[in-house]
Amino acid sequence: MKRHGMLLLLLGVFMLPLLLAKIVLDLNWYQGGVTNRGQLLAFPLASDWLTEPGKWQLVYLLPPSCDALCQGALFNLRQVPQAIGADQKRVSSVVLVVDLPASFASDNAVQSLAALQKPAVIIPSPTDMQTLTAGLQLMRIPDHVVAQIETLEYGTAAIYLADPLGNVMMAYPLAQGKTAILAQGKDLLRDLKRLLKVSRIG
Description:
The chain is of the alpha/beta class. It has two domains: 1-30; 37-198, 3-Layer(aba) Sandwich (Glutaredoxin). It contains five helices and six strands.
């Protein structure tokens, strides 16, 4: 009986790790060697339209109307580069726009988190968009660039990260709610700091 109990104990010692490993894999708890918080694109987009080669760039396509998701993206595009610290000059944010009114200016005072408390949908008048994009670099793009972005895995519903060679290679799906938006900003900041540390370009 004693020998039988010892045999069961030894069997349990060997089987328990295998059982735990199977549970972890079945429940998708194992993330392998992945350390990035953003989603790596299966097919990165090689862009020739980004205007600041040599920098890591956060890229977002401004929709016709800027809802809460859009406002959260603009908030992170503004705040994350400022939080980089000493390497801030190696990072920039660019807001892509299809149509830019002549009266539109983007050099206003930096917007605060209070912008996230605006109504869910904002009619895109020049004044409203001027407020929402204050302090951000705007770049007008042609329709074929919009089409390129729409072919990406997350389409227009993400902030994208482009490397210093202009390859759009990582996506951060738009977040909703202050907690999720702030968490996304922390993810962006964490990934950028790691990339800046290991990158020999940009």
